[in-house]
Amino acid sequence: xxQPKGLWQRLVKRLPGRLRxxxxxxxxxxxxxIPGKLWHKTLAGLPCLHxxxxxxxxxxxxxxxxxLAEKEFHGAQGLLISDAIxxxxxxxxCLPLLHLGEKALDWYGDFVGVVVHPDExxxxxxxxxxxxxxxxxxxPLIGETMAGGPVMLAWSRVLGGRQAATQGHNxxxxxxxxxxxxxxxxxxxxxNGCPLLPAGFMGxxxxxxxxxxxxxxxxxxxxxxxxxELSERFGEPAPWLDAYAAEAPxxxxxxxxxxxxxxxxxxxxxxxxxxxxxxxxxxxPPR
Length: 287
Ligand SMILES: [Zn+2]
Prior knowledge:
Distance between the termini: 43 Å
Radius of gyration: 20 Å
Largest sheet: 4 strands, mixed
Number of domains: 2
Bound molecules: zinc ion
Structural class: alpha/beta
């Protein structure tokens, strides 16, 4: 269900045409700024943003402003989308875009809608097995990303995850990481943990870059699955990353991205073979 637009969207609607055109073509002039009080409150409430330097914060503020102007938020089940909710989601969604240049928001160019539920939802699923039998079941969802479609988030879990950065959790980054994975894939192709790598990635040819990516991620995924199994079956220490990462390579990639953005040092210690690949993918400067 659509909800009344927030302050920022109302503000953008009132802008003169030239400024509104800027939001689509940022070379024309400077964008309107997010109100300072709202921005600082958002930063303060998101521990994953506390390590950003001044330049990164300013860049994130600009990206968030453009994200809010380009996307449409919808509150489901009676949830009213406040400015604080919209900005919190925008800032977290834009964190991985921080070093990707002027066209960073193109990574999110295949959709407009962000659907926010107050809590997890039960989604109806059905599938036909090898014997031709139709199975129907309900699956609890806290977030979902569809190729070419909206991103769905459960607000209670977005809120809950804000303090869970040390465990490497961030639901917003997880769902938007699926958008990175899906970008450039043929219609109908699922996310698989192998995003389209930019030309010249790590100084390698396209084929060599894809090979390097797949070898490192396959090995890390396999190792993680083994560690998880040892912990579940034999009581060995549980691996640090969210166990949900073992569901599929696409989930391993999304869980790794959220961990990389909210707990970079720990992620690099746990997955030293993945850290340089994510540094190169997100063009993140070394600390
Ligand atoms: Zn996922």
